[in-house]
């Protein structure tokens, strides 16, 4: 479908098919978005099959849905189905691929952007502690984005990984993933992208960005169920990854009694998975592709710009977003109130936002002297009247905080 689907009438239809829009004013789509009725029904239908037929028997019938989810994810990312693993979420996928890179040795270097997700940093630090390997931060440019030229200057033969969080969790900045990819590709250095906030919000082309591994979440912009995710592993890179955990699905024992690793990205999957959630994910992927990622991106950008402009006009609010190009994550602080207090005050009025502390994006928060941020994240479902309701509530809070 074309961008014409996102006319006001089409947006009304999309909202009518999302029951959460009738019960909450939702500005936490970056935490988890609102699934459609069709996604819920896909999940429920498989659960009913499990109850009526038995879970194992229903699983046989669900293989086609799993294959469909894999194919749709490949379309979404401009990849091949054998390069896609269906995971339990962004962090499980990213963490499994990272663990498969080891072991780490003295002198090994990992280069990360300043906006790296705290969970990824925890995995890196745990894996490299006591080894002599180092984790170093790539400088940012004057817009706050990771600087490809600075990365180029840091590269040498000891660099074993460049890791980038494409859209940080603590604000609207969009990092130059493709420019970073051109540097890593020319140097032959492995390149991992955490695309938890990007998948379903931006058009994603793994060939264009030049990554070896990319992880995404189902529950965010894709509007899929929580507990689902996507992991892309470039076909030629796969032999370099030895999973830390395998089972009878990912590495069945051969006739000689030795494990036979799967030759596709599904080596990062397990025999134990929620097929009901995969059915929901398949529906969410289909809906995103039907709308069109260009149309989704354009709508989210329009809504986010309107929200930022409204926030900037409120005395006492500081909008904290950086970057030359910005996402649907809008970060701010309100003078005199902690971010968590703002979140709770809005929740009491039926308006949901997020609030993040240093552990989410520690390098960036510390570099910018931020202890906390309030985050209002939008979707293509977000309406102008919802923005005005949020702004009205914040104007009142700002007056009360003076």
Class computed from helices, strands and strand pairing = alpha/beta
- Element order, helices and strands? HEHHHEHEHEHEHEHEEHHEEHEEHEH
Main sheet?
7 strands, mixed
Global mean pLDDT: 96
Q: Fraction of residues in helices?
A: 40-55%
DSSP helical segment count: 14
What integer value in Å does the Rg equal?
21 Å
Poorly predicted runs of 5 or more residues: none
Structural description of this entry:
- The protein is an alpha/beta fold and 402 residues long.
- The chain has 14 helices and 13 strands.
- It has helices spanning 8-16, 37-53, 55-61, 63-77, 90-99, 118-128, 148-154, 177-187, 206-209, 275-291, 293-312, 339-347, 362-367, 384-401; strands spanning 25-26, 84-87, 109-112, 134-137, 159-165, 191-194, 213-217, 229-233, 317-319, 329-334, 351-352, 354-357, 372-377.
- It has a seven-stranded mixed β-sheet with strand order 2-8-7-6-5-3-4, with helices on both faces. Strands 9-10-13-12 form a four-stranded antiparallel β-sheet. A two-stranded parallel ribbon has the order 1-11.
- The longest helix is centred in the C-terminal third of the chain and has 20 residues, at 293-312.
- The protein is globular, with a radius of gyration of 21 Å.
